[in-house]
Design brief:
The protein has 124 residues and is mainly alpha-helical. The protein contains 4 helices and 2 strands. Helix content is 54%, strand content 6%.
Length: 124
């Protein structure tokens, strides 16, 4: 078992990894080298392995090393988000979204936020 402490940063990294593993199906093939980037962090941290067992071991080692490096540098392991981003949609969707927001007495930002919240709540 890894020496990783399960605080929120580590938990997010592990959840990212669990989602990756759930998407893999190797069917006994061991000659394939899998390389992955850890998502949700600002730095580039990659790991690789010749199958799921090696991939898990490499992932745990890289997470441990990355969290230790962050502690040494006094920085938060998880990427910080500023709360704003650009969304590109077709002009028709843009027009319809503005009309819908106006009818509901909302700004376009409020409409988009509510749609995202609804999507995230629905997925949980």
């Amino acid at each position: 078992m890894t020496k990783l402490r399960l605080h929120s940063s580590a938990l997010m990294l592990i959840l990212s990894f669990i989602n990756l593993i759930q998407g893999l199906s190797l069917n006994g093939i061991s000659c394939i080298i899998l390389r992955r980037k850890i998502e949700g962090i600002d730095d580039l941290v990659t790991f690789e392995g010749k199958g799921v067992d090696e991939l898990i071991k490499a992932f745990r080692g890289e997470v441990d090393d990355y969290i230790e490096l962050c502690k040494e540098e006094g920085k938060e392991p998880l990427r910080s988000y500023k709360g704003s981003f650009n969304v590109r949609v077709s002009p028709e969707i843009h027009r319809r979204a503005v009309e819908s927001a106006t009818k509901k007495g909302l700004s376009l930002n409020q409409l988009v936020q509510k749609a995202i919240e609804k999507e995230l709540i629905h997925k949980e």
